[in-house]
Amino acid sequence: MLAKHGTSEADSDFSWTVDFAARRAKAQADMLPFLEEVKNLTEALLPLKEDLKALKKDKADKEKISAVEEAIKAKEKAVREAQTKATDIDAAVYDLKAVNPNVKAIVDTRTVLEIIDNINLQGQIAATAMNNLRGLLAEE
Fold first, then answer.
1. How far apart are CA 23 and CA 29, in angstroms?
2. What angle do CA 27, 31, 37 make, to 5 degrees?
3. Under 8 Å CB-to-CB from 110, ≥6 apart: which residues?
4. What's CA 33's distance to the chain center, in Å?
5. Whole-Å CA distances, 128 to 10, 59, 114, 123
6. Is the pLDDT of residue 6 over 70?
7. DSSP 8-state code for residue 60
8. Quick one: which of 43, 39, 22 has its CA closest to 86?
9. pTM for this structure?
10. Cα(120)–Cα(136) distance, integer angstroms
11. CB 68 within 8 A of CB 123
12. What is the mean pLDDT of residues 78-97?
């Protein structure tokens, strides 16, 4: 296996390689809509901030100022959420938890009665072992 180190032939049921370039490319593609959303929302924020500045300068109605401030807060929150989603996708590229992609799921197909019978059998085996141990200790 050492001669095949770094190649897909070296992979087995208990060892595998991770293609970071492919993971990074997929993450960048997955991040793109969120980054575009951040860009669009940020661009939409600029006129709102200018409007707010003008309203405050003109000492406009408090309701108008409040409405623009709320719109700004909503856009800023949306920017943070989209940026967080993009950052989470990017961070997942480097998540190296040992999750074996070659693992084979083991499914217990026994019925409830078969499981109960198995528990009873294991209990009998344990009881026999305990009786044998008692017998050995009594002989001493």
1. 10
2. 175
3. 118
4. 19
5. 47, 92, 21, 9
6. no
7. -
8. 39
9. 0.59
10. 24
11. no
12. 92
